[in-house]
């Protein structure tokens, strides 16, 4: 019998929810990924490149021209200039970039601050690298970061702080004051910030996304991860990239090299050429603002309470006015009795919680969301 190296990580309930949704023919809003079509123009671009280039071996750290395009776009958005040759790496997925960064930087006994709830399982990756995750719970119901708690948690052993903005599962987006507080906290330290910005394009609260790259001193101590898969709702190919100062990126690339291979060049070349066309549009904030507004409008007058959400394709709902039972129990009841599947908040926490909240995935067709809302209205 092999004992697990990872504590408090068990995906079995999520798998059970997904299977139960299929078994009962429920409307499934429990998943992580979009159920929307890839834009036709990029789909056609990939098909054309696939016919001509499927046998080509890619560059180890990504197509240089694509990295140059990323650097150009990042400079326009944030004002920060990353060197394509040494500070940008194309990766197979957001998860690969996060894992490689943690593996490159965290050593035995290092403390890593992680915020919960989180869909990233970052604490588990820290444990695999013999680090010590320190979990800080986001404040409810707005899921804000209590920076005083972060200040108290930092010690001489703190090596990394992991954040995500926009945040999955809550849809919380860090504001300028949050980033300034973070920058102040790590100033004069050797702490590295690992930031998942893979859903930056989904912010729909009317405010610009505050990337860590916009703050020069913070950017010098940060690894920023982004994803093409999230941008184009194409989780099947998940390709992303990470950006960091050259000394940090050098270590991350050592880990990538040990993983072997490179991200498929067909996707890279197709994306590069698509980014050079007039049709290129890296933002989907209007789409997900529409989805969120549509769903919540059709829930008006229900006993569910909508929690604050500024981005992502997720929406948290509080069901405490309906039942005072654990969220996993309510999620099962919701599927069996009402034909709607959602993810309980406790899936994203490593400790037991009395929260009465569910996460709903709104990256679905309009008709699907309207029907889901109708069923929820009857509860």
TrEMBL record:
* GO cellular component terms, semicolon-separated: cytoplasm
Highest taxon of source: Bacteria
Q: Identify which cofactors the protein needs according to its UniProt entry.
A: pyridoxal 5'-phosphate
Tell me which Pfam families the record gives.
Answer: Aminotran_1_2
**The Aminotransferase class I/classII large domain covers which part of the protein?**
31-375
Record-linked InterPro entries: Aminotransferase_I/II_large (IPR004839), Kynurenine-oxoglutarate_AT (IPR051326), PyrdxlP-dep_Trfase (IPR015424), PyrdxlP-dep_Trfase_major (IPR015421), PyrdxlP-dep_Trfase_small (IPR015422)
One MF term from GO for this chain? kynurenine-oxoglutarate transaminase activity
Q: Which keywords does this chain's UniProt record carry?
A: Aminotransferase, Pyridoxal phosphate, Transferase
Q: Which PANTHER family match?
A: FI04487P (PTHR43807:SF20)
Q: What is this protein called?
A: Methionine aminotransferase
**Species of the source:** Breznakibacter xylanolyticus
């Amino acid at each position: 019998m092999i004992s697990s190296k990872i504590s408090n990580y068990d995906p079995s309930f999520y798998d059970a929810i997904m299977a139960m949704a299929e078994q009962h023919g429920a409307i499934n809003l429990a998943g992580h990924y979009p159920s929307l079509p890839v834009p036709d123009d990029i789909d056609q671009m990939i098909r054309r490149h696939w016919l001509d280039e499927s046998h080509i071996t890619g560059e180890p750290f990504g197509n240089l021209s694509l990295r140059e395009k990323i650097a150009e776009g990042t400079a326009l958005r944030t004002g920060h200039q990353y060197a394509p040759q040494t500070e940008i790496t194309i990766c197979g997925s957001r998860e690969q970039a996060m894992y490689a960064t943690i593996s490159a930087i965290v050593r035995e006994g290092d403390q890593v601050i992680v915020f919960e709830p989180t869909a990233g399982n970052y604490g588990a990756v820290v444990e695999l690298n013999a680090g010590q995750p320190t979990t800080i719970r986001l404040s409810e119901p707005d899921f804000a970061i209590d920076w005083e708690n972060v200040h108290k948690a930092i010690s001489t052993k703190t090596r990394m702080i992991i954040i995500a903005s926009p945040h999955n599962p809550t849809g919380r987006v860090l504001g300028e004051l949050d980033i300034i507080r973070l920058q102040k906290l790590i100033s004069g330290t050797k702490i590295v910030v690992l930031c998942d910005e893979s859903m930056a394009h989904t912010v729909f609260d009317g405010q610009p996304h505050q990337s860590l790259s916009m703050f020069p001193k913070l950017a010098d101590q940060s690894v920023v991860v982004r994803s093409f898969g999230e941008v184009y709702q194409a989780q099947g190919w998940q390709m992303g990239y990470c950006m960091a100062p050259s000394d940090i990126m050098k270590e991350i690339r050592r880990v990538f090299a040990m993983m072997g291979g490179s991200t498929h060049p067909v996707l890279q070349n197709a994306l590069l050429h698509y980014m050079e066309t007039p049709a290129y549009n890296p933002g989907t904030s209007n789409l997900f603002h529409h989805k969120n507004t549509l769903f919540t409008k059709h829930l008006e007058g229900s006993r569910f309470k909508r929690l604050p959400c500024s981005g992502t394709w997720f929406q948290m709902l509080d069901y405490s006015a309906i039942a005072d039972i654990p969220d996993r129990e309510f999620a099962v009841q919701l599927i069996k009795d009402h034909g709607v599947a959602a993810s309980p908040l406790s899936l994203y926490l490593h400790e037991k919680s009395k929260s009465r909240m569910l996460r709903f995935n709104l990256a679905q067709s309009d008709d699907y969301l309207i029907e889901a809302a109708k069923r929820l209205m009857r509860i």
